[in-house]
Amino acid sequence: MLILETKNLAKTFSATKALQDVSFKLESGEIHAIVGENGAGKSTFVKVLSGLVQPDQGEVRVMGEPVSLGRPADAGALGISVIHQELSLIPHLTVAQNLVLGQAPTRHGVLGRVLGTVAHDAMVHQAKDALALVGADIACDRLASSLSASEIQLVLIARALHREMKVLVLDEPTSALSPGDREELFERLRLLRERQVGIIYISHHLDDVMELADRISVFRNGTLVRTMPVSEVSMDEVIELMLARSLSDMYPKIPCEVGDPALEVEGLVTPTSPRGIDLVVRRGEIVGVTGLVGAGKTEIARAIIGAGPGSVESLRVNGQPTRIRTPAEAIAAGIVLVPENRATEGLIHQLSVRDNIVVQMMSDRSTRRGLTRGPFIDWRRVTSAVANLVTKFGIRAHSPSQVVSGLSGGNQQKVVLARAIATNPAVVILDEPTRGVDVGSKVDVYRAIEALASEGSAVLMISAEFDEIVGICDRVLIMRRGQIVKTYSREDVSRELVLRHAITASEEEIYG
Question: What's the CA gap between 437 and 425, in Å, rounded?
Fold first, then answer.
């Protein structure tokens, strides 16, 4: 049964055509994936369905009837529930209070109706019924702030089901989940499909899409390019539809000469790696550190630059013994970190592309000297240096003066990379450099990483994306339970080997 349909949707923001003539159909009991690069129109389409944005033309139909979605409450009343990438519960309220938010049962009698006093027992009973709909074993009295990402998603889905949801829209639902939580979510979604809920599933993770979805729609430049059954298309075909070009160069490799060690770490101890870790990264080399979520990868990066708990017995940069206690000392020593969370640690969102890069330039004494005349900034030199970085990383912005919060996720990540190399560091540490980035922008990021190595930087790349680690790194270090359990060269490594050691490393490999 056709549960949701759009006809000829169009939406323009200033000179940007966010949606152009989009006609889409969702059947009940179907998981329908939507994929596309950042800026392809997916977010605008979801905002139209959720009532946050009104289209300039076209219509939305629910159960065959034209509907007006002037505000989110209209979508909710029609059974359309959207769970955004930024998972949202009120942290200081309990699970039960979040589940019945806006529809809490009140006590009987005149006083209860007038004062709106919540009937606690009835609220808990409703909350338990809602959680049972998704098979979630979560205590109703837990504060939302104590929940994991996967638990928050289950609570949000339970709330939607409790409100008689017909259509569930999920935006990047696995971006913060471990492999185990991902599989649990998939099982819940399959159960919803059996209950005839229509599910729109938006994700950059094409392997998730190919495993879970029934049909897939590809958006590009605001248009719906093609809709097809997942069983009739390959992942490569989907990617080529997204990009409108071949993917033979998904993982480019620029030949470069590997030189002397640029980073040597001995006896690195963190709360997740109490036995200590040794590693070496050479000039012109990309070394990958991978493993499952919780293996201790990020802790290594933060301990090296003095941003997290841990200690290092010996650290040398370009052969020189170095002591690093703070990120500022790391930058001064020639080590920069591109953090895992660009939103909170990588960018200053209210500043422009140029100013984000300039802030980093001015943090390094030698770089600052080349961009100043006496006590004054030489803006001609700064403008030229920023323009070179914008071109080098292919940052798509109206101009370097554009506020960085207005860029797509992929272009924001390129700004973070440009900031990182603005001081010509000897060592660049990348922590999940393509998280939340679409396929097309990933290729641009890979090329930028290869360019860093070809220019002589030593690159330590931390990622839970096994395919990109295998595709781009010269050496791969596999972690499990806080230890490096196996090392492979580029020629010998494979995705299967990485997965095997990340999941099933022996006690001898972990503990020695």
Answer: 24
Structure confidence at residue 177 (pLDDT): 66
Q: In sequence order, what DSSP letters do the residues of 440-490 get, joined into one string?
A: HHHHHHHHHHHHHHHTT-EEEEE-S-HHHHHHH-SEEEEEETTEEEEEEET
- Strand pairing report for 483-489 and 31-35: unpaired
**Nearest CA among 274, 312, 256, 243 for reference residue 458:** 256
Which residue, 225, 237, 285, 236, is CA-closest to 258?
285
Cα dist. 235→173, 211, 313, 343 in Å? 19, 11, 45, 29
Nearest CA to 129 out of 163, 166, 91 is that of: 163
What strands, in cross-sheet order, belong to the sheet with 65-67? 16-27, 2-13, 57-62, 65-67
User: Is the Cβ–Cβ distance between 125 and 132 less than 8 Å?
Assistant: no
Dihedral pair phi/psi, residue 280, rounded to 5°: -135, 135
Q: Are 463 and 469 in contact (CB under 8 A)?
A: yes
More confident residue, 175 or 207: 207
Contact (Cβ atoms closer than 8 angstroms) between residue 416 and residue 444: no
Predicted confidence band at 460 (pLDDT cuts at 50, 70, 90)? very high
State both tokens at 24.
């889409």
Contact between residue 203 and residue 172 where contact means Cβ atoms under 8 Å apart: yes
Contacts made by residues 117-126, CB under 8 angstroms, sequence distance 24+: 123/96, 123/97, 124/96, 126/96, 126/99, 126/100, 126/162
What are the φ/ψ torsions at residue 346 (nearest 5 degrees)? -100, -20
pTM score, whole prediction: 0.62
**Vertex 177: Cα angle to 393 and 466 (nearest 5):** 55
Complete domains list, the chain, with CATH: 2-89+147-243 (3.40.50.300), 261-511 (3.40.50.300)
Q: Rounded to whole angstroms, how far apart are CA atoms 58 and 18?
A: 14
